[in-house]
Amino acid sequence: MRHMTPELEEKPIERTIDDRLEMKSLSRKDRRKYKKEKLRETMEDMSKKEKFKYLLYYYKEVIIFSAIILGFGIWLGRTIYENTRPLTISYVVINCGNQFDFNLDTMEQYAKDIGKFKGCRVKGDTNVTISGKEYAEGYEGNGNSQIYINFATMATSDYYDVIFADKDGADGCAALDIYYPLDKYLDAETYAKVKDRIVTLKNMEGKDTEMVIDVSDLQFIKDLNLGYDQVYIGFPGDQQDNHDRVQDFLNYLFP
To answer: How confident is the model over 192-235, as pLDDT tens digits?
Structure first.
């Protein structure tokens, strides 16, 4: 329930009573003038404290409405600002061990290190659960089917730049054809840097494809505290911005 200040809740003692019949006969302009005169007459013999309380009560609806509009304006402006800042990276952690243990500071430090923190956004999800085993058994028939559908929809609409996953999660993403094949996604120089780390997974058709990079041994990955030791990264976005952000990230991991 909304609580008002005592001055707004308590109706002060009024010294006069408006003549409603006379008010109705006046034009809008004259009515405002009449109200001002009545207000002045009513407060004429009041102390400063009484005048303050009376004005608060008299204009309480205007004050409350203005406060609501101001609050909404601040929220809307902040939301627009947050959503229109340049994006540093958009990531998702599959099968995160404990969302509260995930070290967001590590991702923010990455943004600072590459000079894309202030005035920019780091966007991430840690609440997605995907299982290659569950997918192989026919996820459509269980209660998690909507999770797969929702995630696949977001991932294939270029929402994420990087997917962090354990082996089971990576198998599930590969089976859903969410990853782009690395030999077609990475440029020749970057591909050569990570070639020895590339892991082959089976795609939706059961074909072995180079899908993810094993980054388990990197200190940056360990600092994230994902909740599992074997960590793989893959890339689902195919817009130029996705490619640029992935390139920034890989250059950071493999300078």
So the answer is: 999 999 999 998 888 999 999 999 999 999 999 999 999 999 99
Q: Which residues are within 8 A (CB) of 152 and not within 5 positions of it... i.e. 6 or more apart?
A: 176, 178
Give the residue among 98, 127, 91, 111 at the shortest CA–CA distance from 225: 98
Whether residue 234 contacts residue 213, with contact meaning beta carbons closer than 8 Å, is answered with yes
Q: How does pLDDT run across 134-190, given as a tens digit for each residue?
A: 655 555 555 556 677 778 888 888 899 999 999 999 999 998 889 999 999 999 999
Beta strands in the chain (DSSP E): 87-94, 121-128, 162-165, 198-202, 208-214, 232-234
> What phi-psi label fits residue 95: left (phi over 0), alpha (psi between -120 and 50 degrees) or beta?
left
List the one residue out of 107, 89, 87 whose CA is nearest residue 226: 107
How far, in Å, CA of 77 to CA of 80, rounded?
5
> What is the pTM (predicted TM-score) of this model?
0.67
